[in-house]
Amino acid sequence: MPLDPGFWALQALNALQLSMLLFLLSIGLTVIFGLMHFVNLAHGSLYALGAYVAAALATVGGYWTGFFLAPVAVAGMGILLYSGLIRRMRKSGPMAQVLVTFGLIFALLDLTRIIWGDIALAIEVPSLLAGRVSLFGIDYPVYRLFIIALGFAIFAALALVLKRTQIGAMIRAGVDNDAMAACLGINVERLFFIVFCVGCALAGLAGAVAAPLLSVTPDMGLQILIPTLIVIVIGGLGSLQGAIAGSLIFGFVQTFGAVLAPQLASVLIYALLAAVLVIRPMGLFPAKG
Amino acid sequence: MLDLTSVASGYGETQVLHGLSLRAEQGRVLAVLGRNGAGKSTTLKTIMGLLPTRDGTITLDGQPMGKTPYDIARMGIAYVPETRDIFPSLSVRENLEITARRFGDKDSPWTMARVLDLFPRLGERMDNGGTQLSGGEQQMLAIARALLMNPRLLILDEPTEGLAPIIVKLIHDKLMDLKREGLSMILVEQNFGFATSLADDVVVVSKGQVVWTGSADAIRADEDAQHKWLGV
């Protein structure tokens, strides 16, 4: 195996691209959990739904229609789930929440099967982002660079909102201590609803950008769920830094593991997860110190 | 202004308040005294909606109290908990802004400038993290944050707990200033001298019920009641 600089650059970019996809998924899930201690295992299914909606819209109106409307559609699904199920389950404890959202995974899986069938859908990379560019001595697909840039842009935007705005301060206060936040007149339930919708939209966005890279299949949501949960546990619950750090760690360990130590690759990330749980059970950057 | 009538409340299966009734009057300070575990903090948490009222009623100026802490805060009740509950992820400034931005404007009685005037120490610490403060500074911040809600009624749970005597004196003087301005307050306190010098009215709680009601002067004079209910 030639381990020249080009190899490292290529794998590093691949790792970054996987990390950014995981970041888009984990950020919503982790803040929802941090704010309301609500476990939404169906988050991965919303990602799959985003991919399907994007694929369906792409055949009608082109890639960008899907890119912009899939997050909206998935946020709409989030509103339905919230008002139909989640709001009623807010006080019913983690066991019931895990069971119901786990059941939702299968309900949404079959829903996508009924609508789109079992065959994998493919979606074209948009012409604007087709082709490759020369970077660090290698040719790299523009579309993958786009995903990396998009991930960093979303991270920067969320960091700005969380650190600099009043609603960001309210979200941080709610994650720190939701009961006290409510006593100070913060409508924590409405805050949770907003965060939940944004989280759903980001999951839909992740699905839409992943669609041209992966084949769009009904079980893609289930496949991404475990990596997303690992990211959250490694990073620490409820925090933006945790989500980005966990995503980067997962992306790099997974990508480099697969090429440098293929026989260990599937174990490596779980070994890391176990190590984090032993050394820092709360994760690397938990919101509650 | 605030009436509790035969209120029952508690944690999970454990009932702590057994038909507790009390009244806090407009423009006066009510001290709630009693031994550890008597139900003082539980009373305040029940008023704030942090614990459900299982029986009895709570009214504010005759209106039934809101169901959730959010509704209750919106009715004009500000709460300073025993644990102060400063948000660790927020700076001192953000801890204050979180109430100032939504409960006040330039013409409100309490503005950022005015609470910093009341507690100048906070002004020097504005960009510190909420948890980098000493216990006394955290208490000042919790009170300042509550005042910025421009409340009709301020509820304080053990404001002197764990504080050095000089800080206790400072908190006492500041609360005295607030009392002179006519702010209605309910105060839960272990420090008998602190409580009775601030309070107009006193109720003593034991085993989840009010066992003594009277003025601050009366409880200071009533050594039997002090001995029987407070172990002073």
Automatic annotation (TrEMBL), chain A:
It comes from the Bacteria. InterPro entries: ABC_transp_permease (IPR001851), BCAA_transport_permease (IPR052157). It holds the Pfam family BPD_transp_2. The keyword Transmembrane applies. The keyword Lyase does not apply. One of its GO terms (cellular component) is plasma membrane. It is found in: Cell membrane. It is a multi-pass membrane protein. GO terms for biological process: amino acid transport. Keywords: Amino-acid transport, Cell membrane, Membrane, Transmembrane, Transmembrane helix, Transport. The chain crosses the membrane at residues 20-39, 46-64, 70-86, 98-123, 143-162, 191-214, 267-287. Its main location: membrane. Signal peptide: none annotated. GO terms for molecular function: transmembrane transporter activity. Belongs to the binding-protein-dependent transport system permease family. LivHM subfamily. This is Amino acid/amide ABC transporter membrane protein 1 (HAAT family). The lineage of its organism: Bacteria, Pseudomonadati, Pseudomonadota, Alphaproteobacteria, Rhodobacterales.
Automatic annotation (TrEMBL), chain B:
This is Amino acid/amide ABC transporter ATP-binding protein 2 (HAAT family). InterPro entries: AAA+_ATPase, ABC_transporter-like_ATP-bd, ABC_transporter-like_CS, BCAA_Transport_ATP-bd_LivF, P-loop_NTPase. It comes from the Bacteria. CDD domains: ABC_TM1139_LivF_branched (cd03224). Keywords: Amino-acid transport, ATP-binding, Nucleotide-binding, Transport. Belongs to the ABC transporter superfamily. The keyword Nucleotide-binding applies. One of its GO terms (biological process) is L-amino acid transport. Residues 2-232 form the ABC transporter domain. One of its GO terms (molecular function) is ATP binding.
